[in-house]
Amino acid sequence: MNSSEATNPLGLSTIPSVSSEGLVPVGRRTSLRSYLAALWGRRHFILAESRAKMSGSTRKNLLGYGWLFLNPLLSVLAFWFIFGFILQSSRGVPNFLGFLVIGVFFFQFTGKSMTGGTGAIRSGASMIRGFQFPRAALPVSVVVRNFLDFIPTAAVMLVLIAVIPPTEVITWRVVLVIPVIVLQTIFNVGLACLLARLGHKVPDLTNFMSIISRFWLYGSGVFFSIEDKLSNHPAILAAMQFNPIHAYLTLVRNSLLYGVDSPAWLWFMAIAWACGLLIVGFLFFWRGEESYGRL
Amino acid sequence: MADSELEEPNIVAENVQVRYTVNTNDPGQRAKGLRRIGNAMLGRRGQTTVRALRGVNFVAREGEMVGIVGANGSGKSTFLRNVAGVEQPDRGRILVRYQPLLLGVTAALQPALSGSENVRLGCLAMGLSPEEAAEAFDYVVDLSALGAAIHRPMGTYSSGMGSRLRFAIALAARPKIMLIDEALSTGDATFAERSERAMDELLAEAGTVLLVNHAAKVIQELCTRAVWMHKGEILMNGPAEAVAEKYRWWAWNVAKGKDDIADKLLHDVVSNAVKEEINILEPELVRDPIPRHAARTVKKTVASTRHMKRREAVDEVEETPAPLLAAAESQVWPEEIATELPKAKFPALPKPASQAVSAPRIHDEPPPLRLRPSKKRVVLRAADPSDRASSVAASDDFTGRRLASRARKIADERYQERERIRQDEAPPTVHQDSGR
């Protein structure tokens, strides 16, 4: 390596040789299998990271965890005042308040995962620069964090529905809420992964996201029944019914509020969206693994 | 440095080039025509490409601590980020033996969390299990010496405290390769002492440290070798003393505005610089020298035929001497040689380790990078289980403990050596004109 050793007696410069035995290119994307194994190996990190995000955001507020419940409750109140009281969109919807509560609480789960996923790489910049771990841990931890937030709020939601006057029909179908939550969580993981890479590539997406999120909120039938309002636009209705959030909301409302069976195609769509987006989103994120260090 | 050639390389960087496209408001770089209007609408002035690294070749071996000096913007941090794998170079490649750990200037991991929670989070991010993280906790708290401050939010720490904690967390995973980018320059004297000892231990266990520091004195004291980077290239590579000395002299002249001397110095260094190249011997190529498209006709089990050939060659050499000697006696070259001369053969090289039976197959994916070798212990057992030696080895990791004590001894020697140098350090020599 020394400059004095760089010439041999013939005056030719010798190029030092090193064997690449046992050396591996650094920071390269690994195969999907070992990537998944590495991600599983960091499961404790994902949990710790999501707890860190949770307490990091709530500690600054005076009410702390209280906002987890207050925020959706206040939005339910606001939506009820505007849509139920002033615009009278509650006509034709039995048990409108319960309908609204389920819509707002379940939509916020996906909505928060969406905005959190978009900024996951940017907000995890110090971790990315400091340590080498599968970067998918960041969007996954966003969803895990929102899931941990969601579970206690869902319990509050159940109490609310039970207490509010027009009582729901309780059948064995209440149990079906659990698979729906699982499917929606899987869907959120796929969504967060997809948006994490897009948001890293196109930082402008964070501005765009609030608009998309609002449009989705209105289009998913959170505070009106799209079947009633769009009955004379069959094309738009079909497109709206393809919306995954609408599927999840309808499934929950049917099983929890009305105690009726949901059509099979609704279940099929819920499963297809969850698995499809998980595969597409995760593969898309994995393919960009090497690029997340550059900000 | 000749003996260091024998050590295994831990980091090999070959022709690493990095470019960044960044916004600029340099009037000379403005876009023309329509693009200018477009840029104006987006509130941009123009874009330019910065070549942060222009072909860096670099090897760092086991037990080496390499200092990197250079002016601001010479590409030191970019190089470290690339070695750590945070970014990928645009051209060239970087090979490492273990996953390097980068210690940057931005120390706070999660500013809202307390120091102790950050310790746990950092340990888990490095891939430690929760039990290991709990075990390492005391070590980290001890090394960082933060006292009660460990329970306060990390966002309230001073920069020195933050980098102390960050360094201690990094060492908790006992990494083999550490890249330190200015991270220790904010620590105070007591911490400098602790961190040096910790790094000595790391080096003694065949680790490698790359250290970026603007104080050339620190580089001189700590490093075995130094590299001077200038505008994305390595200008000088040699013993830490010499390189740091040259750099200090140049920096001093630049600082004093003596540009002519500084330029001349730089010119001297550049003209003396040997454009370093590295020849990376690929185990794959050694094993399969024929390109795949050329080898297509002889697709039969390649490895076994080659074994056959090699054995044949040896046989022929043993047969030949007799007819050759007979021809030499007549002193005349015969018109034609009756016997077929064997073709010139190169001595058969010893089999590279990659061809050993136990070696992984070449088209297999490389194993995932770890911070350090895996903990699996090799315990040699005698055939007789009642044998005393084997029971001793099994009951306690004897070899591992002996190696550890040896590493400790080497670390102590390094430490004493450095103390000795510091004590009888002569008053400033020729170039060390104060100021720093």
UniProtKB/TrEMBL annotation, chain B:
Residues 29-256 form the ABC transporter domain. Belongs to the ABC transporter superfamily. Pfam families: ABC_tran. Residues 297-317, 349-436 are annotated as: Disordered. This is ABC transporter ATP-binding protein. Keywords: ATP-binding, Nucleotide-binding, Transport. One of its GO terms (molecular function) is ABC-type transporter activity. It comes from the Bacteria. It comes from Brevibacterium aurantiacum. SUPFAM superfamilies: P-loop containing nucleoside triphosphate hydrolases. Residues 409-425 have a biased composition (Basic and acidic residues). PROSITE patterns: ABC_TRANSPORTER_2. Residues 388-397 have a biased composition (Low complexity). GO terms for cellular component: membrane.
